[in-house]
Amino acid sequence: MKWRKMKRIVLIFSWSIAVVAVAAGTIIAQTPTPPPSKYQPTEVQNLRLKVKQQDLIIASKNAQELQKALQDAQKDAQTKYADLMKEADTVKTEQKWPANLIFNPDQLSFTEPPPAPAAPPKKEEPAKKP
């Protein structure tokens, strides 16, 4: 899997987890204890609601833990990428290759940079008539 594609997938996954965690936290935080009402669920219904509420709390905590694990994995991947690029620089130095070579981390190959584009020819301005 190419580095950029993997990075994009990780980013999308982390945002998804963050949205779920924030939504669950917001729902829980915005649910104040209502005053006694004439609309009271039965004891069994209340227990079913409490079970679902606990499921939501557990899912929210799991999402937060997964987000932390994902952040740690992203940091580790960035460190490994930096290590790979540093090793590529070491190889260039050991081989006495030009420092401006481009390293492709997906294919572990070195190539010369593309030539600089030639400057376009200057257009001469027509002479102004007095």
Global mean pLDDT? 86
Shape: elongated
**Order of adjacent strands in the largest pleated sheet:** 1-2
| Rounded radius of gyration (Å) | 30 Å
Structural write-up:
The relative contact order is 0.09. This protein has helices spanning 3-29, 43-95; strands at 102-104, 109-111. It is mainly alpha-helical and 130 residues long. It is built from two helices and two strands, in the order H-H-E-E. Strands 1-2 form a two-stranded antiparallel ribbon. A hairpin with a 4-residue loop joins strand 1 (102-104) and strand 2 (109-111). The model has no long low-confidence stretch (mean pLDDT 86). Helix 1 runs antiparallel to helix 2 (43-95).
Task: Reconstruct the topology from this structure.
Blueprint: H1 3-29, H2 43-95, E1 102-104, E2 109-111
Antiparallel strand pairs: 1-2
Helix pairs in contact: 1-2
Q: What structural keywords apply?
A:
mainly alpha
Summarize the structure.
This protein is mainly alpha-helical and 130 residues long. It contains 2 helices and 2 strands, in the order H-H-E-E.
